[in-house]
Specification:
This protein has 167 residues and is α+β, with helices and mostly antiparallel strands. It has 4 helices and 9 strands; from the N terminus they run E-H-H-E-E-E-E-E-E-H-H-E-E. Helix 1 (12-19) crosses helix 4 (119-141).
Length: 167
Amino acid sequence: MAVRHRLIKASPQRVWSVIADGSRYAEWVVGAAASHPKRGQWPQVGAAIAYEVSLGPVRLGNQTVVRRCVAGSALELEAHAGILGTARISMELRPWGEHCLIIVDEHPLRGVGGMLHNVGIEALIQVRHRAMLARLARLCETPDGPDRAADGTDPDRLVTPGGAGHA
């Protein structure tokens, strides 16, 4: 199984607000193009979002379905990748001091992806997860992230006299 973690310098609530917004899926998931609702209310169990994956000139229509949701702490998804089959993606958010430790676990469930799964594929998934978690961290750690207060300030960041923010 491809398991990767990252400490994100934002609260678990802030991280959850990004992953619980299906319209932002393509902003942090590597390979996905603009996402849109397909069925249900994301991230409720059974809800699905649709998106495209580009492989060179080929565009594949995919969807991801919520299989388990514990609001604020866990999200399990089943990604449908057409002829490649499906994969289970589990995300767990843990408070780590004032920050969030996110753990992502992915493995194939059905189809060609499961039959061809090997150490080389695991390595590629690890590289993809590293990039995905870096994107997610950027979205959650920036001042213009999803949880800005009404006055424009960011409750998770402290602004120093020089203007630089830090968490």
